[in-house]
Amino acid sequence: MLDYIRGLASGRPSWPYVAPFVTFIVFLGVSPWLPAGPEVTYPLRVVVVVATLLLWSRGVVSLRVSRAVASVILGLSVFLVWIAPDLLWPGFRAHWLFQNQLTGELASSVPEHLRRDAVFVAWRCAGAVLLVPLIEEVFWRAWFMRWLIDHDFGKIALGTYQARAFWICAVLFALEHGPYWDVGLAAGVAFNWWMVRTRSLGDCILAHAVTNACLVAYVLIFGRWEYLL
Q: pLDDT for 79-91, tens place per residue?
């Protein structure tokens, strides 16, 4: 059965890059309609996405890092940019530019009663730090930015720069982050630039993971759960 499923996708070179991200987004969209709560649906989402990665994406994921220290510094810098507006200007994100019908409302995906559930919080943190950076970098930087340059993206080297692809990718990455689209745009530009600079998927995953790890730590220490959308 697994060989049959792999065979169906073998003629679709985009599939290994797209499948984990799409699976994650579909789960995100249907979760509110499922009979179980997030304490069940979120771990299930993680398990299914990991299974998708293992089934289809192992051949396109590279965790090889060439500039570890610089990637960590970039990740820390993006984290500081992410929290800076709210620290410098309290109430900044209440403006209609950030909360509207297009971007949605600022609210955490973690219900209040689960914020003291150690098992659920562990799942949520693991998903944010270990899984999301991997599937997003594979989708946005390893696939989408190249696909925008040429739909036959396999002949386009990782990190190839084209202004149109660079900025479309950054803008769509920003919109994915809803009320945080402004800092999401800054992060998208930073991670796109790092891919162009390093031509390394592993370095982009590391930088993204450091940013998310810092955000998770910030949430747990200061109770700013709105950062976990």
A: 999 999 999 998 8
